[in-house]
Write a structure and sequence with these properties.
heterodimer; A: about 400 residues; alpha+beta; 4-stranded antiparallel β-sheet; about 15% helix; disordered N terminus; B: about 170 residues; mainly alpha; Potassium Channel Kv1.1, Chain A; 2 domains; 3-stranded mixed β-sheet; 3 strands; elongated
Chain lengths: ~400, ~170
């Protein structure tokens, strides 16, 4: 009996010593996968072996397979328009995971969109078809210029209604840029692929209903989504190059214009917040069903307690029925465990983190002095950033 | 393999340096290698000594301590609670880098998933804000790049824009 057991163990043991190197590479890979990307970039030159491990396509695939936590929010700081500077509000519980504190863009470039680690940057007058756009990875500091200008056959320029980045490193290392152009009233979508390095017009022209804007598209579920003040809106499936309709939440109050407080994606969920009264601190957070059947109520939020702690966020009446913005929602963050999900609220001079489940909140960030009482940022100017080593 | 209703079973483990460990069955079964051994040898006698020729006494004692505590946490329904975090933090506090490396190699050989995940994260935490030189010393790795090659690797990720924090 004992000899059989001994033999079995010895066999296992021989196998394991034969695989010892492979095994220690396994351990090493697991350790590397837990490190912030900043460390991975520097640890590439520990040795040739480490360089090959970290540069290996399998490693980058595994790195992106697991959704990385959001690093933070990229916000334009109070800087001169000539020299735009951006700060990162760290949202990771571990400050070391902040990939950078701030970065500058070359003069006359601004961030237009952030998508899974890459930034789409362009001129503040991005709708000018002669201005070029760039794709930037702020941690590798690599950038690429997109070929620009959509000329018609007659040589005139098409108007640009919106330009959006679509990138999902867990599916492909290539990204696409979707540009909605218009000529003579009808719209057409142009698709740039980083694989081919060129723009191709997608087939089919369409008329956009009024109330439809293509400026602030959100990438989710393999498609770019736009919101509209009407009953339905549009989304563009990037791989199939198909434009489809998406329902909008029912209009509850016909007397006032629809106001969208938030539209964004987090961990594979598309969120929307609409408010009806400008004085309201009570609102609902909706989530879109994966099959686009409709918006589901995700959280009912009552910020009354936050408003007691931060009275400056309560809207003051400035006469003649005019109110002005006193808070905005910068981002809704879905966490691995639902009870940890939170949003970031911007009140005058501060950013506050608010947990949906237990309704706790705390100050997250002080905006630099010099900002007045107004609200400078909203969800379309606060860019959710998740670090990635993606090539541009 | 597990014989319900019987008195607490003890598993005998023998390390590479010849030490004999008596371990409560639920703790020893945390080791996938021991569990699969008894699964494959269902008729193994109760006093069978399982030799572990890749593990020495010191890391094994540390592993038994960890697994014993975690088996108890699970039995008390404390898994995932602050108590566990506190224990884990205390557990690694006094461990040197050398001990950690021995522990992770042993936990990998014994195939203990929970402990392996914990040690992986712990080592990553000790490396994350360190220099390349520190990492080389930590793992005993020799720099096999020529200065020219190293410069080329560094250059590849040089900041493309000015005014960026080098932190």
């Amino acid at each position: 009996m004992f000899s059989t057991i001994s033999k079995a163990i010895t066999q296992q043991n021989q196998l394991s010593s034969a695989e010892k190197t492979a095994n220690s590479d396994d351990i090493l890979t697991e350790i590397l996968l837990c490190l912030p990307l900043k460390s991975l970039v520097t640890f590439r030159y520990v040795s040739k072996h480490w360089l090959s491990l970290i540069s290996h396509p399998n490693f980058s695939l595994r790195l992106h397979l697991k959704p990385r936590p959001i690093s933070g929010l990229i916000l334009r700081s109070k800087s001169s328009p000539k020299n735009p500077k951006y700060d990162l509000i760290n949202l990771n519980s571990d400050p070391f995971f902040a990939p950078f504190r701030s970065f500058s863009l070359p003069p006359s470039l601004v961030v237009l969109q952030s998508c899974n680690g890459l930034l789409l940057c362009g001129s503040p007058k991005w709708c000018n078809p002669t201005c070029n756009c760039y794709i930037i990875n702020p941690i590798t500091k690599k950038y690429t210029e997109l070929p620009g200008a959509f000329r018609t056959a007659r040589g005139s320029f098409r108007a640009i209604l919106g330009i959006n980045l679509a990138f999902d490193p867990s599916i492909s290392s290539y990204y696409k840029v979707i540009c909605v152009t218009a000529l003579g009233g009808h719209c057409q979508i142009q698709v740039y692929s980083s694989k081919t390095g060129d723009w191709t017009p997608s087939s089919g022209k369409f008329w956009a209903k009024c109330g439809m804007t293509f400026k602030d598209g959100v990438f989710w579920n393999g498609a770019i989504h736009w919101i509209s003040s009407e009953r339905t809106s549009l989304y563009f499936n990037v791989n199939e190059e198909k434009l489809q309709e998406m329902p909008m939440p029912c209009i509850r109050d016909r007397s006032s214009e629809r106001r969208f407080m938030y539209f964004g994606e987090s961990r594979g969920h598309l969120h929307l917040i609409e408010i009806y009264s400008l004085r309201d601190v009570i609102f609902d957070v909706y989530e879109m069903e994966r099959n686009y059947s409709g918006w589901v109520l995700k959280y009912h939020v009552d910020l009354s307690e936050v408003a007691i702690a931060f009275p400056e966020m309560v809207r003051s009446y400035i006469g003649l029925g005019n109110y002005y913005e006193k808070y905005s929602i910068l981002c809704v963050v879905k966490e691995e465990k639902d009870e940890d999900s939170y949003m970031v609220i911007h009140v005058p001079k501060k950013a506050i983190r608010y947990n949906f489940k237990d309704r706790t909140f705390k100050k997250l960030h002080d905006f630099e002095p010099g900002f007045d009482d107004t609200i400078q940022h909203n969800c379309f100017s606060a860019f959710q950033y998740t670090e990635s080593l993606a090539h541009v | 393999m597990s014989k319900l209703g019987q008195a607490k079973r003890i598993i005998f483990l023998k390390t590479a340096d010849g030490q004999l460990f008596e371990v409560d069955e639920p703790v020893a079964m945390e080791f996938e290698i021991v569990k699969s051994f008894f699964d494959e040898n269902e008729d193994a006698a109760d006093d069978t000594v399982v030799p572990l020729p890749n593990v020495s006494a010191e890391p094994l004692a540390g592993i038994i301590e960890f697994c014993k505590a975690h088996v108890e946490f699970r039995a008390n329904g404390a898994a995932g609670k602050d108590e566990v975090k506190k224990f884990n933090a205390e557990y690694i506090k006094e461990k040197s880098n050398e001990q950690l490396k021995e522990l992770i190699l042993a936990a990998n050989y014994l195939n203990i998933k929970e402990m392996l995940d914990f040690l992986t994260e712990t080592i990553a935490n000790r490396l994350k804000n360190k220099s390349v030189e520190y990492v080389r010393a930590f793992f005993g790795i020799e720099n096999d790049f020529t200065p020219q090659e190293e410069e080329a690797v560094r250059k590849e990720y040089e900041w493309a824009f000015e005014g960026v924090d080098e932190d």
